[in-house]
Design goal:
By secondary structure, this protein is an alpha+beta fold. It is built from 21 helices and 42 strands. Strands 1, 2, 5, 6, 7, 8 and 21 form a seven-stranded mixed β-sheet that branches. Strands 33-34-35-32-26-36 form a six-stranded mixed β-sheet. A six-stranded antiparallel β-sheet has the order 38-39-40-37-42-41. The radius of gyration is 37 Å and the shape is elongated.
Length: 876
């Protein structure tokens, strides 16, 4: 209260607090692109493990692609001051890069993140091409679509935070981040930094800060026995180390001012402005897990690592068909963080992957690294261990989603015992985090609350992308004029130059009509219909789908796809067919021609070609995978011209050629191949207008020439092109249905009076069993009828028919609707097709159709065939 306060005060404040911005209204000034890449071995991660794996595999001659998400190679080894093969890690990395850069079979890509691993070695990569150089002409981001035979995930490990009260105060940072700032960028996160840890790695941060001249007043090691050799080095430098100590609280609001140390039952405060915390390291198992790779719990290191005995598998159940390949280095887990172990593990992984691809690695030299004595990590999930409920309510687990230790404990108390339920109850590890930072800490807290072991609790699901990908990279070049491909037929330029009024049909642009002089579209459509009925018309039908099915089982396939029996077709004959989906509803229609014993050419609607082809492939690949059939979408391989009207035969015969077009030689629903004039062609004797009609298919490259040749040859015959609207009017005059008008996803063939196109002789087709359901056999279903207005006017498109009486509430029930409505130039009146309840049984009934203009139209139910009901013209 007051109500407007929500919109203008509270909601904006909440959205701002949550970090939710506004979608930009201006166009993005940058450009983006997609890139396709094939490789034998993809190595994700350019640390020392990834570099060593690439060096090991490069000598085999296999195509190697090594990607690193940052601009820097070598991972943590150069930062930590490692010595590899007697030289600083930075020098070893430079030498390795120089060797790999000279290898012709190796590709190196920095700033390229492995975003996700999918089936069959398909990997998405996200490259930030020009973020660092915005003045360049390069695309800002690039989305890589990679196919790899084997994948090595050398993705390293991520440091875990520690959970202690007020660990979200600015200045509390991961120890590795503090070290990175100091070593890589010369930036001090604080002047007095306290290090708190449960493992040896954080001592490297203390040593790096001390070497940079920063003050490290104290190292708090939660382990009672303390660390190994690194701890001794820190002590020798005069850095105080407290074993078995913990942080009890952090003081400060906008920044760290001091911490309260809990040690041996006592507490004291020490001033500082930075806390460098380390709770251990978790292997980056995301890419391994994306495609089904399993994890196993490593009790000694307190981490989940890839279970190489249960890798991602392919559809046939064999390992590495869907390869996440193998994990290497720190990402493998067993290697821990010791560089010597990491390099040895990476060498072994690369050799194994090469063997899978049939190549033997001749030499497997592992670089020498001086070993470092380390003490075992001790898992510390809550600090101090005896914290009360108030303290736990200030301990943060997930810093992105603001999840605290107390939230996870409350989830368990509320009964959310499944880790996935807890995730959704608390948002732990959700969204862009995907469990990177605090997943293990949260699972440990949950397992303790449930009095269960961590492996029993399990892990949440890691989903791609590994880190967010920009919307621009996802879209790629699909923006502005290239947002959606615009498809043009071979005759498009002629249409454009001759007054075409365009209509979008799927991705195609088809002429709605051809405007002449100052005529309206309605006048143009009427002219085209009348001319076609009286003389001859040409329709560019190139957009119709043309799907070739070939193979020993092609006949079996078409019988399943269509409601009628197609396998009985003879070569040289055509048959109209209907396709239904699994629910029995009409999905597409068209003419099927049998080319030979093993080949069928299936015509589909213009907007349905790609969809139907994909649908056929789906069935072939998932259900009928053992059928020997090849499906090819040939839609754009051929230009197709419908030559329609009483003078159609005369026009085609003028061109000459080898095909006999006589009524008996090429009867209705027949086809023939040969030459028409100088053009190689297939001619189909089919009609969607009710007139004598031929559809002539020629190679796409000859389409424009064939079109112009027809126009020249038929000038004295009154030849005239017509568009899609004239086509629709003529098919409606004949009572022919059109997918998308008479169908809406709830209509079955029986509703449209197409029982004759449903075979009772074959055992099955897609949708047959569904059509036997009670609501699809109900006698009260809406069925196809013709409609004529009493006054000859045109019914509103989509208008509903209402029952003659009123119910008890004064309402009238809908009993039908208009599906197609036109003014018929041929008949000189309005005609329509519609679906009406019990329609065929109500011939002659008058129905009311209320319009949105306030007028109620009256129409009579008539036969849907308005023109040439006996088919004399199309059979001429």
């Amino acid at each position: 209260h007051p109500r407007p306060a929500w919109k203008h005060l509270f909601e904006p404040f909440i959205r701002q607090s949550a970090g939710l911005g506004k979608a930009p209204k201006k166009a993005d000034a940058d450009r983006y692109e997609h890139f396709y890449w094939h490789t034998d071995i993809l190595i994700v991660g350019g640390g020392v493990a990834g570099l060593q794996a690439a060096l090991t595999a490069a000598e085999t001659g296999l195509r190697i692609t090594l990607v690193e998400q940052t601009a820097h190679w070598g991972g943590r080894a150069p930062v930590d001051g490692e010595v590899i093969d007697g030289q600083p890690a930075d020098d070893w990395v430079k030498a390795a890069l120089a060797t790999l850069a000279q290898a012709p079979n190796v590709t190196l890509r920095p700033r390229l993140m492995g975003a996700g691993v999918y089936d069959h070695g398909y990997v998405l990569g996200y490259e930030r091409v020009a973020d660092h150089s915005p003045e360049s002409d390069a695309p800002r981001h690039r989305l890589w679509k990679i196919r790899a035979k084997q994948i090595i995930t050398a993705t390293g490990a991520i440091e875990r935070p520690l959970s202690f009260p007020y660990n979200d105060v600015p200045g509390v940072m991961l120890a590795s981040a503090v070290r990175d700032y100091a070593v890589n960028f010369g930036v001090a996160a604080g002047q007095r930094s306290i290090v708190v840890t449960n493992n040896d790695d954080a001592y490297l941060t203390a040593l790096a800060l001390h070497g940079a001249g920063q003050t490290v007043p104290l190292i708090l090691d939660a382990r009672p026995t303390g660390g190994g050799a690194l701890a001794d080095r820190a002590a020798d430098l005069g850095i105080r180390v407290r074993k078995g100590a913990a942080i009890a609280a952090v003081r400060g609001r906008t920044r760290v001012q001091a911490v309260t140390v809990a040690e041996q039952g006592k507490e004291y405060e020490i001033a500082c402005d930075c806390v460098a915390m380390s709770g251990g390291w978790s292997p980056v198992v995301h890419l391994w897990s994306h495609c089904g790779g399993k994890l196993t719990w490593n009790e000694g290191l307190s981490l989940f690592q890839p279970d190489l005995t249960r890798p991602p598998t392919g559809a046939d159940g064999t390992g590495f068909v869907t390869p996440a390949g193998i994990a290497a280095g720190s990402a493998h887990g067993d290697a821990g963080l010791l560089t010597a172990a990491v390099l040895e593990n990476a060498t072994k992984a690369a050799a194994e992957v090469c063997e899978r691809l049939g190549r033997k690695v001749r030499a497997t030299k592992v670089p020498a690294v001086e070993p470092t004595e380390t003490a075992a990590l001790e898992p510390v999930w809550v600090m101090p261990r005896d914290s009360d409920a108030k303290a736990r309510s200030k301990m943060w687990l997930d810093f992105q989603n603001d999840v605290k230790v107390s939230d996870v404990q409350l989830a368990a108390q509320e009964g959310f015992e499944s880790v996935e339920h807890t995730k959704r109850y608390t948002t732990l590890g959700m969204a862009t985090d995907q469990g990177k930072l605090s997943n293990i800490n949260g699972l440990a807290v949950l397992s303790k609350a449930l009095d269960a072991e961590i492996p029993q609790v399990g892990t949440t699901t890691f989903r791609p992308p590994y880190t967010p990908i920009s919307m621009g990279a996802i879209a790629g070049e699909a923006r502005g004029e290239t947002f959606q491909p615009l498809r043009r037929t071979p005759m498009h330029d002629w249409h454009e130059a001759n007054g075409a009024h365009w209509e979008p049909v799927g991705h195609w642009r088809r002429p709605y009509c051809y405007l002449r002089g100052g005529e309206t579209t309605a006048q143009a459509v009427a002219r085209e219909v009348q001319n076609t009925r009286a003389h001859v018309g040409l329709l560019d039908a190139s957009t119709l789908g043309k799907i070739l099915l070939k193979g020993p089982d092609a006949g079996k396939l078409v019988d399943m796809l269509y409601t009628n029996k197609m396998s009985t077709l003879k070569p040289g004959r055509c048959r109209y067919g209907l396709m239904c989906n699994e629910n029995g509803f009409l999905s597409d229609d068209g003419v099927v021609a049998r080319l030979d014993d093993q080949t069928f050419l299936c015509h589909t609607t213009s907007g349905g070609a790609d969809r139907i082809h994909g649908w056929i492939e789906d069935w072939l690949q998932t259900e009928w995978w053992d059928w020997q059939v090849y499906a090819a979408n040939l839609t754009e391989q051929y230009a197709q011209v419908a030559v329609v009207g009483p003078k159609a035969r005369t026009l085609l015969e003028r061109l000459g050629g080898s095909i006999d077009l006589g009524r008996d030689a090429l009867p209705f629903m027949g086809w023939a191949a040969g030459t028409i004039g100088d053009f190689q062609a297939r001619i189909f004797r089919i009609s969607f207008s009710g007139e004598l009609s031929y559809e002539v298919a020629v190679p796409a490259g000859q389409g424009a020439a064939f079109w112009e040749r027809l126009l020249d040859a038929g000038e004295d015959l009154g030849v005239m092109p017509y568009g899609t609207e004239a086509l629709h009017v003529m098919r409606a005059e004949k009572g022919f249905i059109m997918i998308g008008d008479e169908t809406d996803g709830t209509v079955i063939p029986q509703d449209l009076g197409l029982h004759w196109a449903i075979s009772g002789k074959k055992p099955d087709y897609l949708g047959k069993r569904a059509q036997a359901r009670s609501h699809l056999t109900d006698d009260a279903r809406w069925r196809l009828v013709g409609l004529e207005t009493v006054d000859g006017s045109v019914l509103p498109d989509g208008a509903y028919a209402v029952s003659p009486g009123h119910n008890e509430n004064g309402q009238r029930n809908m009993i039908g609707r208009v599906t197609s409505t036109y003014h018929s130039p041929t008949l000189g009146k309005g005609i329509a097709l519609g679906l009406v309840q019990n329609g065929p049984d109500r011939m002659g009934d008058l129905l009311d159709f209320p319009g949105t203009d306030g007028k109620t139209y009256q129409a009579k139910i008539v036969d849907p065939v308005f023109y040439d009901p006996d088919g004399e013209k199309q059979n001429a």
